[in-house]
């Protein structure tokens, strides 16, 4: 008796017979995938299939082979299992471990049967009769077995077409005698014929006695009775529950009609139908959506404003906009309003502000991030014809919200991509347009869902990266960076209490004075928001907790000062108010980055060459054009600025330090021009002076953006004087900036030159 070992797959509720094929889908996160890998790597794709496992009773399994292995888009693996023959199971291995289940099996000796062909012909004759008599048995399998001369194989091929009863199939599986299985099959054929005759007679009797009003009721009662007799009443019980849920569902009439239609399809499906789970999932989705469920808004606007002020410092514009939205809704009873898009650098509180708004106005909150999204089906779902289809993120989030008027945050809209799979930003147009979203249709749901009650809030870091058609539907609100003193207030009122509580300390354990917090802001962070500040404060408190726990020290209070700060945070990362020496050919420009404003030193030098302009420092195309404009302007006006024209015959090299960081934009125009002028005329530029503004070929200075962020960055770096375009408004700048920095407005570069000469 030949013995060998095989990996094992245990089936639940499914019976695989030899000479039959079964399609299965495996979750790669579960151990079944390890069994598949073991079969492919060590057993030439062979595997043992156990249709029902009972401890110390399972004796027969099916030697099978893995075929048509396919990795699905959802990460799962789909395989075809082809049953080959029955084998004796001697022992199971790894039953009580996390290792893949294995077995030791032996071959079953084939039996010699007399008159095998006669038995097969008898079975074929009876099969042809039942196919003609019983309409629900397909005749397609007759062609498959027509030329079959092996009784063992013949019975296995026919059985699955005659009965789908699990217990009966297990009897066939466990019967290793092909002659005995042939007798069983013949009996089942006769039983099926007799059962059909009884059903037909019953139908004739019922048909004579009932009228049209009783027809549906009696048929359902009959179906229920038959299913109870067959032990298949679980589906009927589920159908009753689903019908009750449909009747109780508060939804539009067309949705109830759709549910009724799908329920009729579900009832007509047999338990083994591949469509039954698809229909069941679809019904469940329709039942779970909040068609007419909504929450009542908090219309006490004073209370809403107070709640927003307690959760976030500053951000007056966006808070006022929310109050305006609620006021208009209360007055006009109109849900439609502009879609708000919060634009600003990371860390200024866009996402947490949206969460606070939802809490303040008493709405459920849901959030999705579309950063890096490429596939439009992520937004609008897949058609039900696809394997593994489901609704998109919009409908999925509405289901999670459990109300049809949540506050819906769509994060990172400036980071969406488009490729051959579609354009997600175009799909958002229908979602966000107040004229269209009342009839939003997800590909999977296929019915309109009203999104007009939803308060959509979007967030982005770069407004220029938002597609124009989408931007046209948005009301842009800029959330600019915080000043140092705003950060100080946020740290005292919000961050420090939250961090101390999170780390399990009492508020009396730690004391950090204002000057120390300002030092952390200036020398350990360089950002527009407060995320890095929160991380640094958290680092201090963690070290204190570690000191208490590890050293088992009882401490009444720890005071963090500027003197002992280095013990907790290490050396300073950034220098504040560090005055650099004046240098010829070096000018401070101002830059706007996703993390706020910053000072951008520009260096210029020249040497013998052929009059080339060399640009380094990862400059973008727009900034390179600004450098060429600056050089052309100085060449055209060399007499006014007392420049020796022969110097232009040299190679001029412009470099912007920190070459690994990309830099672009036109606002460095006057800084580039002044740096070239300083280098060629030996004019010294004060290191406490910075400038920003776009320059034209005629020397005119044009308005720029991001002045608040740039001025905050200049203040952090110790700049006390900034040259800006004449058209820029400084009235909205923070008081700390206006009190510590002198702003000089200029219309033309000649005005800049006069400022430098007279300084």
Low-confidence segments: none
Give the number of DSSP strands: 24
Radius of gyration: 39 Å
Q: Structural class per helix/strand content?
A: alpha/beta
First-to-last CA distance:
105 Å
Strand content: 15-25%
In this structure, how is the largest beta sheet organized? 7 strands, mixed
Please report the number of helical segments. Answer: 26
Please state the average pLDDT score: 84
Helix content: 40-55%
Trace the largest sheet across and list its strands.
18-19-17-16-20-23-24
Shape type: elongated
Walkthrough of the structure:
Helices cover 43% and strands 18% of the residues. It is an alpha/beta fold and 759 residues long. The strands form six sheets. The chain has a seven-stranded mixed sheet with strand order 18-19-17-16-20-23-24. It has a five-stranded mixed β-barrel with strand order 1-3-4-5-6. Helix 11 (301-311) packs antiparallel against helix 12, helix 11 (301-311) packs antiparallel against helix 13 (350-360) and helix 18 (484-502) packs parallel to helix 20 (531-550). The termini are far apart. The model has no long low-confidence stretch (mean pLDDT 84).
